[in-house]
Amino acid sequence: MSTENPSVRAFKNHRLGCYTILRGQQVVASARRLRLEDVTFEIRASGRRRMLETGQRTLHAYARGQLVDYVTLADADRLAPIVGRRADYDPRQGAFFFELESGEPIVGARFAQLDESGLWVSEPRYLEPARAA
Predict the structure, then answer these.
(1) CA distance readout (Å), 81 to 31, 78, 86
(2) Per-residue pLDDT tens over the stretch 77-113
């Protein structure tokens, strides 16, 4: 990982209707569209459990990766869609992001784009099935 471009975390900010990009604890931007490279999808089990128990949204699922580009709420749209597959996260379905078409759990991707239509991934990395002991 380059020290010039440390990884960021991005999550859907339902209250603001956009995505929030964090570097450490600092907000980098609020974006309507963003692209990450070398992405890992992360879920905090305690936050997911609290959301399921209370029904209140919690910040517990996000994408972590290298920030390639983003479009703020005020910017003209200059970020073309990526060629990839639709993906999503639903805490009621499980503790993982998944490819929409196949339902297969994914843990990351070469590229991910978060935009108005949701999450798109290119070269997804799938969750490996549990190995028999």
Answers:
(1) 15, 10, 12
(2) 778 888 899 999 999 999 999 999 999 999 999 999 9
**Which pLDDT does position 53 carry in this prediction?**
93
Nearest to 72 by CA among 115, 39, 41, 43: 115
Residues 56, 53: Cα–Cα separation, whole Å:
8
Q: Do residues 103 and 36 make contact, with C-beta atoms less than 8 angstroms apart?
A: no
Structure token pair of residue 24: 């450490």
- 3-class secondary structure, 17: coil
Neighbours of 121 (CB within 10 A): 25
Please tell me the distance from the alpha carbon of residue 55 to that of residue 61, in angstroms, as a whole number. 15
Distance (Å, whole) CA 126 – CA 87: 12
Do 79 and 70 contact (CB within 8 A), yes or no? yes
Report the DSSP beta bridge partners of residue 9. Answer: 22, 64
SS3 127: coil
What contacts 75, CB < 8 A, 6 or more positions away?
Answer: none
The number of beta carbons lying within 10 Å of the beta carbon of residue 6 is: 11
